[in-house]
Amino acid sequence: MLDKVAVRNVLDKVKAEERQALTAPEGKLLCDVYGIKVPQEGVAGSAEEAAKLASGMGFPVVMKIVSPDILHKTEAGGVIVGVKSADEARAAHEKIIANAKAYKANAQISGVQVQQMLTGGQEVIIGAVTDGSFGKLVAFGLGGVLVEVLKDITFRLAPVTRDEALSMLDGIQAAEMLKGVRGGDPVNRDALADMIVSVSQLVNDYPEISELDLNPVFATKDGAIAADVRIVVDYNQPAPRPRHSQDDIVKAMNRIMRPQAVAVIGASAEDGKIGNSVMKNLINGGYQGEIYPIHPKAEEILGYKAYRSVKDVPGTIDTAVFAIPAKFVAGALTECGEKSIPGAVLIPSGFAEAGAPELQEEIVEIGRKYNVRLMGPNIYGFYYTPANLCATFCTAYDVKGSAALSSQSGGIGMAIIGFSRSAKMGVSAIVGLGNKSDIDEDDLLAFFEQDEHTSIIAQHCEDLKDGRAFAEAAKRVSKKKPIVVLKAGRTSAGAKAASSHTGALAGNDKIYEDVFKQSGVIRARSLRQLLEFARGVPVLPTPKGENVVIITGAGGSGVLLSDSCVDNGLSLMSMPADLDTAFRKFIPPFGAAGNPVDITGGEPPQTYKNTVKLGLEDDRIHALILGYWHTIVTPPMVFAKLMVEVKEEMTAKGIEKPMVASLAGDVEVEEAAEYLYQHGIPAYAYSTELPVEVLGAKYKWARGAGLL
């Protein structure tokens, strides 16, 4: 049973004394309560007491200043290691006190900590930080003096499960060192995992602990022990962002995204006005629900009866699209609240993004008061193609499919629309989120999770207002549907000035990277990747295993495709002898079996057909990457039609495996690539990276969803 009273007493004392950090002995008490192993130690008030303590626990010892005013003890000359005798302990005590007074004359000094000295084992760091978006995070990495040099550290949302803690041990670049190198013993993984779990539970139980360091932790084959404890507190934690229940989110989002009736506030009959474009898109897009134009003076707009206010509309309204200047939004939103309209789509700009946060705060308060969910402001609106709904001033969009996309930026939204149209990528929805005053990415995840028309969710974001809510939703949804996220701002400095090693290492992007991984999110590195993943991942069947085989007509392509496999975490199959012999029957003597299978460029179409058919038929192979080289013997469209023929022949036999293709050649390969894509084989002209990236994304999702 945890002695939480003892922990609370320590933290209350620190607060009463208006300190920002715990002393080392106070930190040890918290560690003891949570089962975090630390060395024997004591605090000496005199040189003689230091000698007595050191002699009692056995030499060598480490001695450190204990002062709430000196957090970085080494900088102050407040640490002496390797003290080997009682006389050395007396001298070390005097020197540490003198150094501390020289470092900070008015520092409150509680004494000198005498601690059993640890040697041997691998030095690691276990810590925790508080992030403005994600809240409490636990960290693990290489420790000791190298921690801020190598910056080899990984993060997870706290509290962590035991499995998540174990995954952290494999999540650093130096993971192999923990397994024992050059005859060294492997560390005790269970002991480290236990310590990570305990730290995560401690910071989760006490929100005022803002940063925590156990550095170094000495990890050996027998266990793990923390040599130094540093705990920083902040009693002014921000209030948690208001959250809606899952049921309330889904109920509201269903009415907003699939409305029976839409009001256009600021509807206009004048070409060039946003309110005119919204009306035309609703009408010309084929929306079959009720459309209510709202205008202070007009009798009718574009053939629809107009109303002065939403309150004058006799029927129920599900969604109100705003196309009026920012200064009028609050008044019209209040009327929407009084009308019990559940959703407002706020196209107008001129709020927080334009230096008017007070206008945005006002509409947020109105939304909360009347329970109106706000999309935006400062957005292009949204599309929901199953309902033929174009609630936007952008061009109408009618290519239906299963990809749901969203963007925080209007410009990126236009790129999504353009790419989707150009690539003939069917979408279920395209949504603008803008300033995210209310509705954000996790609300969309909740909607698309239960939307039968959506099979993949792709999101562009610059920040996450509530990263923890997003991570919780993504962890749940990604088990059912792939989630792809393009996080903009990867290169920003991100890390605030921090009091701990862990805090200094908590670069904003590293946290996003690790939390996305923990939540099963596929991270896109570019806008093009986001779009290609949204298009390609749903096309591919889910692989049944990790064995990937490359079949190529060009050795150069085979090398580049192999490199891409390594970059994207794909496993190139080690070719069994019998399968190697089977492939060699179809390729010339100067070709190369093994993996990649190089059939060479001079081979007729039948060679492509035979080798690809063999690859699909053999149960040991789980995915194929095709590298085509444009030749007179096998022209691009001949290759493309043949591959589709083989694929369909195998499908008829119940054999489905993911296949992607890279086409190298003259401009005719563009048509061939498009033909392959339209028939279920994601294919790219002039690129060996994109097809493998798409396949890699499918594998990442399948692993995260527990399907492999």
UniProtKB/TrEMBL annotation:
Keywords: ATP-binding, Nucleotide-binding, Tricarboxylic acid cycle. Residues 28-258 form the ATP-grasp domain. SUPFAM superfamilies: Glutathione synthetase ATP-binding domain-like, NAD(P)-binding Rossmann-fold domains, Succinyl-CoA synthetase domains. InterPro entries: ATP-grasp, ATP_grasp_subdomain_1, CoA-bd, Ligase_CoA_dom, NAD(P)-bd_dom_sf, Succ_CoA_lig_flav_dom, Succinyl-CoA_synth-like. This is ATP-grasp domain-containing protein. It comes from Mesorhizobium escarrei. The lineage of its organism: Bacteria, Pseudomonadati, Pseudomonadota, Alphaproteobacteria, Hyphomicrobiales.
